[in-house]
Write a sequence for this structure.
């Protein structure tokens, strides 16, 4: 019988402790998303290692007939302690929930892992974690195949729309819109963030007053396009007030 043990390395994006004291973690790894259980983990050394946002190497065992793999060992490969800061934690949590919603188990994506790991590092170290989270959210969305339509009105297809689309988070033309047009910088961000490099977007942050409208557009777009993002949605207002 072939061995069902495997070693994987990834970042903890979700962590839940069951009443029985088991820890159920979801890791984002270069080989895709992985969900596993550390039985009785809350009472052992695995507890502190399997923390949210930790980069861990795990040895897992797949029991026949059981869909959750068991974590046998875990070693800490990297941590970003500054993510515990209140101004950063909410954005890191938001990025983790987002990655969990966007990427499916077993979907091989080294690029998704690299982008997400970069987003967490940015949220941990950049002076403006909110801007990192906004830029990286759009990049992660695009990688998962969700690209907002910006060349044409989302309702009638007219070219060069510039107004918010309160239902779909895309853009509307002046005739279809009820809200005033986006300021030029916000419009430029929405039109360009997917194709620009992260570095370019990071170099041109928008002012704090313009960001709530961008979060709103992101939230509407994600709600309309991506399923099962309930917990992510609840985090968006948290991010807004942070
Ligand atoms: Zn229109």
């Amino acid at each position: 019988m072939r061995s069902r043990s495997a070693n994987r390395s990834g970042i903890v994006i979700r962590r839940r402790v069951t009443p029985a004291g088991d820890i159920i973690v979801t890791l984002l790894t270069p080989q895709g998303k992985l969900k596993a259980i550390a039985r009785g983990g809350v009472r052992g050394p695995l507890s502190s290692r399997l923390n949210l946002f930790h980069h861990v190497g795990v040895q897992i065992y797949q029991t026949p007939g059981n869909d959750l793999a068991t974590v046998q060992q875990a070693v800490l490969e990297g941590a970003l302690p500054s993510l515990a800061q209140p101004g950063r934690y909410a954005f890191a949590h938001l990025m983790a929930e987002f990655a969990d919603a966007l990427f499916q188990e077993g979907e091989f994506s080294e690029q998704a892992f690299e982008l997400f790991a970069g987003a967490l590092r940015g949220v941990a170290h950049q002076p403006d974690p909110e801007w990192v989270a906004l830029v990286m959210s759009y990049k992660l969305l695009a990688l998962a195949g969700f690209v907002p339509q910006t060349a044409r009105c989302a309702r009638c297809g007219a070219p060069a729309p510039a107004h918010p689309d309160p239902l779909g988070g895309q853009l509307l033309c002046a005739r279809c819109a009820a809200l005033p047009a986006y300021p030029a910088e916000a419009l430029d961000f929405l039109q360009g963030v997917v194709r620009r490099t992260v570095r370019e977007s990071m170099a041109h942050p928008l002012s704090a007053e313009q960001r709530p409208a961008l979060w709103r557009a992101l939230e509407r777009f994600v709600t309309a396009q991506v399923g099962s993002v309930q917990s992510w949605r609840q985090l968006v207002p948290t991010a807004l007030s942070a």
Observations:
- Helices lie at 46-49, 86-102, 110-125, 129-143, 184-192, 198-203, 211-225, 230-241.
